[in-house]
């Protein structure tokens, strides 16, 4: 009669005929094994990463092609984070967004926060800091798009 290697209970009704653990015991066994073999697993993953570089690059290229919207959203978010400077506090930046929301509620005209110097401009890139923010109507912001006129 097959028994679980962890708790010694009968495992004849397991889904797999070669099962050695209850499902609950297997999860605990795997967790402990991974903790004990962390260095080994890191080496295996590092080796696998290097050995499959070409396949991985092809997969990433295909994913980017098939999911342009997700990739562009990720890129915008990443750019925004990269351009936020350490000396600009989140509270100082939030003041602009709160003010834009209040103006929209008071006037009924849609306002948005604009970067005077775009975060991803053609010739120049700006920072995500209070000195580079302004509140303008959404219509004007959409017209301005990604341009900068000194």
Give a description of the structure.
By secondary structure, this protein is mainly alpha-helical. It has 2 domains: 1-51, no CATH class; 83-144, no CATH class. It is 55% helix and 7% strand. The chain has 6 helices and 2 strands; from the N terminus they run H-H-H-H-H-E-E-H. It has a two-stranded antiparallel ribbon with strand order 1-2. It is elongated. The termini are far apart. The mean pLDDT is 84.
Keywords:
two-stranded antiparallel sheet, 6 helices, elongated, 150 residues, 2 strands, 2 domains, mainly alpha
Brief write-up:
By secondary structure, the protein is mostly helical. It has helices spanning 23-36, 38-51, 53-66, 68-82, 90-107, 138-144; strands at 111-115, 133-137.
- The computed structural class is mainly alpha
Outline the low-pLDDT stretches.
none
Mean pLDDT across every amino acid position: 84
N/C terminus separation: 82 Å
Task: Set down the secondary structure blueprint.
Layout: H1 23-36, H2 38-51, H3 53-66, H4 68-82, H5 90-107, E1 111-115, E2 133-137, H6 138-144
